[in-house]
UniProtKB/TrEMBL annotation:
<dbReference type="Pfam" id="PF13560">
    <property type="entry name" value="HTH_31"/>
</dbReference>
<dbReference type="Pfam" id="PF19054">
    <property type="entry name" value="DUF5753"/>
</dbReference>
<feature type="domain" description="HTH cro/C1-type">
    <location>
        <begin position="18"/>
        <end position="73"/>
    </location>
</feature>
<dbReference type="InterPro" id="IPR001387">
    <property type="entry name" value="Cro/C1-type_HTH"/>
</dbReference>
<dbReference type="InterPro" id="IPR043917">
    <property type="entry name" value="DUF5753"/>
</dbReference>
<dbReference type="InterPro" id="IPR010982">
    <property type="entry name" value="Lambda_DNA-bd_dom_sf"/>
</dbReference>
<protein>
    <submittedName>
        <fullName>Helix-turn-helix transcriptional regulator</fullName>
    </submittedName>
</protein>
Length: 288
């Protein structure tokens, strides 16, 4: 059904197929751009799925690649049509990280490392509100509310009764110690975090300060994996003005290896849950 079509994933899958056809033809992106009288950057954006692909784009590219099988052309044209539909997140207006939301919505598993804050999928509404207001001080209250609503909607992947997102989170102790909002709010957030960690598809580990230097000191990142083997894994790194998406196998491998080191150096699941509970208790005792 059209309502189940994820436009972000469709664009990405279509882009991968168009890249494959170009490489089979032995052409460079520059050569294709020259043939179509467009910029090379447009061809690159079409292939990496970051730009909406029209059916005319597909028709023109299939012409350049001399694709004669009408079934292939029709399939690609349908993918282009699907890719221009709107996902649920579009109803909230302009969301800066909409590409990521599209990927997360279709992912089968997500591995997250965060050194500073509790990841969005495990945040309480109050924590999310205080965090967004503090991180984006010039944001209007209405926009803060919109971001919080989107974050709460994203969490439905965790609570879904069928095929929930498999989430593995590694947190630095700093994410637990940083007082976002106030101590009472932090207590509620950590209690929620501990509760969520008991779900069979959610794993939470903590790296204490006394562990010292570790591979995650360079900052936050996430690794998304998808149910369809045709969709390669993606490393997502959030930025201030733009985000970075790494899809090359070598890049994904390096970040995956780094994540294995983080998991190995972190407290195990039970130790982490107790660690979180102990800090929550500290917040309760010093709420004043």
């Amino acid at each position: 059904m059209a309502s189940n079509v994820n436009p972000t994933v469709r664009r990405r899958r279509l882009g991968q197929e168009l890249r494959r056809l170009r490489e089979l033809k032995g052409m460079t992106a520059e050569e294709v751009a020259e043939r179509l009288l467009v910029s090379q950057s447009k061809i690159s954006r079409l292939e990496n799925g970051r730009r909406s692909i029209s059916q005319r784009d597909v028709r023109d590219l299939c012409g350049v690649y001399e694709v004669e099988d009408h079934r292939i052309v029709d399939s690609l044209m349908q993918m282009a049509k699907d890719s221009r539909q709107q996902g649920w997140w579009h109803s909230f207006g302009d969301i800066p990280y909409s590409v990521y939301i599209g990927l997360e919505t279709d992912a089968a598993s997500l591995r997250v490392y965060d050194p500073q804050v509790v990841p969005g999928l495990l945040q309480t509404r109050q924590y999310a509100e205080a965090l967004i207001a503090g991180a984006l001080p010039e944001t209007a209250p209405a926009d803060i509310d919109k971001r919080v609503q989107v974050r709460m909607r994203r969490q439905e992947r965790i609570s879904a009764s069928e095929n929930p997102l498999r989430l593995w989170t590694v947190l630095d102790e700093a994410a637990l110690r940083r007082v976002v909002g106030n101590r009472a709010l932090m207590r509620e957030q950590l209690e929620h975090l501990a509760e969520q960690s008991q779900l069979p598809h959610v794993t939470v580990q903590v790296i204490p300060f006394d562990m010292g230097a570790h591979p995650g000191l360079n900052g936050q990142y996430a690794i998304l994996e998808f149910p369809d083997a045709a969709d390669s894994s993606v490393v997502y790194i959030e930025g201030v003005t733009s985000d970075l998406y790494l899809e090359k196998a070598n890049d994904v491998h390096k970040y995956s290896v780094m994540y294995e080191h983080l998991r190995a150096q972190a407290l195990n699941v039970e130790q982490s849950r107790q660690f979180i509970a102990d800090i929550a208790k500290e917040y309760a005792e010093n709420a004043g």
